[in-house]
Specification:
The protein is mainly α. About 80% of the residues lie in helices and about 0% in strands. It starts with 10 loop residues before the first helix and ends with a helix.
């Protein structure tokens, strides 16, 4: 017996719920950054090299953009779970996530010159690739939407 993959009671329903939970966790982590950065990095505000401020800025921007990506992804999964996967709304959400990914990639590209850490290059490359792929998927979904609209009109 195979598990149902699509629908509120399938795997995609669980993914939608998980995205809600991740949004709550990401929001909580983002708003606590002014305190947690000092505890995790052992750098204090106004310290030598301004490391606290640098880490705080990078993590705040990352948190806000991640929250935006999660919001769009949750909406995309809602479309899937309500039978509206092949809709212009899904195409818009894929493109929006792509733009947020590219914005995050650009931010990390610039930030690597301020906070020189290897992981920042990895984040830059990863979000550049994911953002670009999402634009390709958006175009594929747009073609599917057009076929669906054309098919719906002939019925």
């Amino acid at each position: 017996h195979r598990m149902k993959l699509v629908g509120k009671r399938g795997l995609s329903g669980l993914v939608e719920i998980a995205l809600y939970a991740l949004m709550v966790v990401a929001f909580g982590l983002t708003i606590t950054l002014p305190w947690s950065v000092a505890a995790v990095t052992h750098h204090q505000p106004g310290g030598a090299g301004w490391w606290y401020e640098k880490y705080l800025a990078v993590l705040l921007v990352s948190g806000v953009l991640s929250e935006c990506i999660l919001w769009q992804a949750r909406g995309l999964m809602h479309n899937v779970n309500t039978g509206k996967a092949f809709s212009r709304n899904t195409v818009r959400r894929l493109r929006t996530i792509g733009w947020f990914c590219l914005a995050l990639a650009l931010f990390y590209f610039v930030a690597v010159f301020i906070v020189t850490r290897f992981f920042m290059v990895v984040v830059f490359v990863a979000f550049s690739v994911v953002g670009t792929i999402l634009f390709v998927f958006a175009e594929l979904f747009l073609q599917a939407v057009r076929y669906k609209e054309e098919n719906d009109m002939t019925i």
